[in-house]
Amino acid sequence: MQETLKLGIGSLLICFMVVTMGLNRIRQQEYSDEYDFKQDPFWYIIGTMFAGGIAVTALMPPIADAVNTYGYFDVTVPVIMAVFIYFCYLFDAPRFTNLVTYGCALAVCCAQPDSFNLFPEHLTLWQNRLLAAFIIFTVSKGLGLLNGIGGIASMQFIAVMILAIILMYIGALPQISGAVAMVYAGAMIAFAFFSWPPEKLIMSNSAFSALGFVLGCFMLNGAVEYAEIPMFVGASYLFTETGLVFYRGLGNTDKKNAGFMRTSYFHISGGGQYDTATVFGILKIIFVDVVLAMIQTASTERLAFPMFAVALNIWFLSILSGDTKPEELLSISKWSKKAVKEVLGKKKKQKNTKQRKSKTKGK
């Protein structure tokens, strides 16, 4: 375990440095209308993930007991498919891109062992594959939606990687998956520094959708290793936002609006005029999801925490959408003071009402 952590931490730092040096060369605040391969941050990030994943996988067999199914195939194929999906996005053909994304997700799911089934009591083998492919598709599209405000999409990606590292440390995931998670996290942490508001560098929604495909495939490998529920709980904010966008889009007649405009954080930010506090508010919710995912590993009930996490996310977002400022979210002292003031105010109002009624009766 110590050898794996040393290798993983070293890989994280190397990937972080490589991507940081690459992104420094193309530092720009506006995404150009004319596509320039050399100025696209996506290639620096996905290239580093690919090379780092290959290097770590090659170094892992002497350290780990066995690479199991998580080997070259699971590191290389999702990244290659993500590149193919990204090219489809560049052609600006949404329906074709959606079909390709789902097809790639289904192909990855079909490559998994027949013993893998999310709900063996209820689903057949092919029903499970179709559902797993739909989950990967949702993660891919969802991460693209989260790219509306700087920092949120990259931090959701990093949060799932951190969760995978913790699961590896407590033995819920194989060592190879933790090492690969550190490689992916290192590359994305570098971009997070540039995308933190105010952004010094931005990446297209299509690039994050392609990276979301990699994230979905990584989560699938966690599910194959019987850590499916913690992985899904860790990304429950992403699923919540994606579900809300779909729900709000059902009655939306204006199809010109981009999907991220129907996200909760876009409404919270005041129509896109956001500050760092908005991002911090969402990151607090993501942190709560990671903690719930860690608790899930000790729970025997499979579906309690995923449903609870989604309900909690909706509750948090409803609070943020109200009078509560983003920086006050999860602040116990401010919440308690506010709650006490409201209770005392109601009691005082009720007391004054009773006194007025008693005076009226006396007259």
Task: Please characterize this protein's 3D structure.
Helix 2 packs antiparallel against helix 3. The protein is mostly helical and 363 residues long. It has helices at residues 2-25, 41-59, 72-90, 94-110, 125-145, 152-169, 175-195, 205-224, 228-234, 236-250, 264-268, 276-296, 304-321, 332-362. The model has no long low-confidence stretch (mean pLDDT 82).
Can you tag this structure with a few keywords?
globular, 363 residues, 71% helix, mainly alpha, single chain
Architecture blueprint of SSEs:
Elements: H1 2-25, H2 41-59, H3 72-90, H4 94-110, H5 125-145, H6 152-169, H7 175-195, H8 205-224, H9 228-234, H10 236-250, H11 264-268, H12 276-296, H13 304-321, H14 332-362
- The share of residues in helices is over 70%
Mean of pLDDT: 82
Q: What share of the residues does DSSP label as strand, in percent?
A: under 5%
Query: Number of DSSP helices?
Result: 14
**Silhouette:** globular
Order of helices and strands: HHHHHHHHHHHHHH
* Unreliable stretches covering 5 or more consecutive residues: none
The count of β-strands is 0
Largest sheet report: none
Termini gap: 82 Å
- The Cα radius of gyration reads 23 Å
- Helix/strand/pairing category: mainly alpha
Concise account of the structure shown:
The chain is mainly α and 363 residues long.
